[in-house]
Amino acid sequence: MSEFDKIIGYDDVKIDLFRYCDILKNPEKYMELGVGMPRGILLEGIPGIGKSLMAEAFAKESGRKVVVVRKDKSDGAFLDEIREAFARARKSPYSIVFLDDMDKFANEDECHCDAEEYVTVQACIDECRDDIVFVLATVNDKYCLPDSLIRSGRFDKIIRMRKPKNEEARRIIEHYLSQKKCVGKINMDEITKIFSGLSCAELETIVNEATIYAGFDEREKIEQDDLIKAYLRLIHNAPEFINPIVEKNMERVAVHEAGHALVSEILTADSVSLISVFCSESGEKGVVVIDQNEDFDYSANAQRNDVIRKLAGKAATEIYYGDADVGCRADIKIATSILENMIGQNCTSGFSGYDFGMPSEYSRGNMERMVVSELERCYSDAKKIIVENIEVLYELVCELMYNKTLTYRELRKIFSKK
After folding, report:
1. Residue 345: what pLDDT?
2. 288 by DSSP, 3-state: which?
3. CA–CA distance from 240 to each of 226, 227, 282, 331, 333 (Å)?
4. If we measure between CA atoms, which residue out of 388, 87, 90, 149 comes closest to residue 259?
5. How far apart (Å, rounded) are the C-alpha atoms in residues 39 and 24?
């Protein structure tokens, strides 16, 4: 069994890594073909998706000696550790230097990425040019590193790792559930739709939290409600109990979230995986989970639909109560940002709104007028959709007030009536 077979999902990443492993294990075969020996691989992606685990599998599969570098010392001592690691690797031909979380080697941002630590790594790589040393690194954000460090010749391949989705997410969830002794009836299709797009670390934590709930309640099995409750608490910070003092305001939250869900469903069928509303001392909150299984659509129409979705909560509140929604500042800010990018950078409404980097007062004012005009049109579209499906909105609000959380199956019953 390959070391990569022990890791669930990420088949495209594993194919790339296995290919490079074969080069390290059988260099003569590739030298006969005239292949230049690769110098290094960089694994990039957000925290918690298994970059270090994948890198460790690569190192084990290659069979080479590995020298690991992680920052756990003060700056001066750490610089010496980097140099010593490369020196040890040069003494053992075909060694691997593993730089774990390399973007954390220095407290620098993307505007000041020429820190001494990175200069030292770069110099050490160059000093190994005539030695058979392979460099393997993981980073959360490659843009915190100097371009000169991660260019070809130092890192021959940069592999982007992403959050698991679709069947990959399902397999990972099933793996974590299989480690628990007793699991009740769980609809994996529904759970996958809700959890898709979370990191591996988040999925593991949710499953473990759900198991804690079952144990504390002295139940013998983990149920689906445990998983959903753990998801809402850990990912969306939903409280354990609803404070009765503020529960009277729950309906406004339900109307707002129902508006988001209804418009999203009309624009893209089967897009809503879960709706939940909850209250705490800090105020009323809600969440609408949009299915993350499909690849992001970068088209202008898709981005405009996203703006309509963002404004749908405000539109639903105005229609339902006949007054303005004062809890939609974040939605408006996001919607405005999307339109500024569309109009000012991608010129979706013509070139008169283009942002030239240092726009004049006239061009800036012109773009702002175009953004406001498009915001009004999108808001009008959201209101039109809600009015045309007002009975569905009423039912969503009623069910949310009663159940507080509606999952995919429950939503399908309601949306099928539209």
Report:
1. 80
2. strand
3. 12, 14, 14, 26, 30
4. 388
5. 10
User: What pTM does this model have?
Assistant: 0.84
Beta carbons of 105 and 145 less than 8 angstroms apart: no
* Nearest CA among 257, 328, 338, 333 for reference residue 297: 338
Query: What parts of the chain have a pLDDT lower than 70?
Result: 75, 108-113, 240-248, 280-283, 292-297, 353, 355-363, 418
Count H helices and E strands in the chain, helices first: 15, 8
Parallel/antiparallel/unpaired status of strands 95-99 and 66-69:
parallel
Residues in the chain: 418
Tell me phi and psi for residue 136, to 5 degrees.
-120, 130
Neighbours of 59 (CB within 10 A): 21
Which is nearest to 138 in space by CA: 124, 155, 115?
Answer: 155
The domains located in the chain, with CATH, are 3-160 (3.40.50.300), 166-236 (1.10.8.60), 247-415 (1.20.58.760)
Give the pLDDT of residue 241.
62
So what's the pLDDT on residue 97?
94
C-alpha span between 83 and 85 (Å, rounded): 5
Residue type, 37: M
Q: What is the pLDDT of residue 296?
A: 57
- Considering just the CA atoms, what is the radius of gyration of the chain in Å? 26
Q: In angstroms, rounded to a whole number, what is the distance separating the alpha carbons of residues 258 and 312?
A: 9
Q: Which residue has the tokens 């006239």?
A: 362
pLDDT of residue 37: 80
- In degrees, rounded to 5, the angle at the alpha carbon of residue 186 between the alpha carbons of residues 180 and 190 is 125
Distance CA 189, CA 277 (A): 23
Three-class DSSP category at 272? strand
Is residue 84 within a helix (H) or strand (E), and if so which, with residue range? helix 75-91
**CA gap 90, 125 in Å, rounded:** 10
Q: CB of 404 within 8 A of CB of 278?
A: yes
Classify residue 37 by its DSSP letter.
P
pLDDT in the model for residue 245: 47
